[in-house]
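Support request, please re-run this one:
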Amino acid sequence: MNTKFYKMRRNRMVSGVLAGLSDKWKLDVTLVRFLFAIFTVANFGIGVIIYIILASILPTKEEIEAEMYGTGPRKRKEAQAIEDNDGWFW
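Re-run finished. Output below.
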């Protein structure tokens, strides 16, 4: 079971933290945003600090999938240079 949290570029309003949480927990984005607003008001703005920390720490879902499935840029193979006198044959 994958327990990583992530941000999402799709359905985001600011940085995608709440969109990622709603996708992870299979909830509606509007519900998560509403609950976040209630939490922030009830706790005197502590939700904004948590949101900023999560926005700076969490990777995007696309980055996680690129690492997992190798959909990122192709890696270039590093080859050794061949010298004129490297003793290959004699």
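The chain is about 50% helix and 0% strand. Residues 29-42 form the longest helix (14 residues).
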